[in-house]
Design a protein that fits this description.
With 171 residues, the chain is mostly beta strands. The chain has one domain. It contains 1 helix and 11 strands. The strands form 2 sheets. It has a 6-stranded antiparallel sheet with strand order 2-1-11-10-9-6, with no helix packed on it.
């Protein structure tokens, strides 16, 4: 049985469409899936898939009564984009779910570009954001949430907008 030319075109088009998957943010879950992602000025940021130099994990989390809560997503760079990047959320020690303002040294959002002397964009009293903790399980070490913030580089006064952030991490 012969295939007609429109059937061949359809199959070629279908294979092209399935090969070109659009990059997406991870789903907002609450199971300790070790996911992290956001948009930085509209561009998707996700940590690297594998450990970096010296085995450093691409996602780090801790919640300590003395040091507070930090979740860090690291992109180590690759051939398509060699610039390493970090997104860091720091809060006071977490005991409960809720919404926390990012506006000072204890509760802040940071975006670092090329962390060997590159710009550092962070929240302050004027450039603020929020983190909503949707799961705070201190027994099992699972923390989930959504976030957004404006960060400013104090050297250049350039501002970045971090939106659609989400994480689901296990300590």
């Amino acid at each position: 049985m012969q295939m007609k030319s429109f059937e061949i075109c359809f199959l070629v088009l279908l294979s092209i469409m399935t090969a070109c998957k659009k990059e997406k943010l991870p789903r907002a879950t609450q199971v300790g899936a070790n996911t992290f992602g956001c948009k930085i000025d509209g561009v998707i940021f996700k940590p690297s898939a594998n450990a970096g130099l010296f085995g450093s994990p691409p996602i780090t989390v801790y919640n300590d009564p003395f040091a507070g809560f930090t979740v860090l997503g690291k992109y180590y760079g690759d051939r398509s984009d060699p610039t390493p990047q970090n997104v860091i959320l720091s809060l006071e020690y977490l005991k409960n779910t809720g919404t926390y303002n990012l506006s000072n040294n204890l509760n802040q959002g940071i975006y670092e570009l090329d962390y060997a002397g590159g710009p550092v964009y962070q929240t302050d009293a004027t450039h603020i954001g929020t983190v909503t903790i949707t799961r705070c399980d201190t027994i099992n070490g699972i923390y989930s949430g959504i976030f957004s913030f404006l960060g400013i580089d104090k050297n250049t006064n350039k501002i970045v907008k971090v939106t659609d952030g989400r994480f689901d991490v296990k300590q």
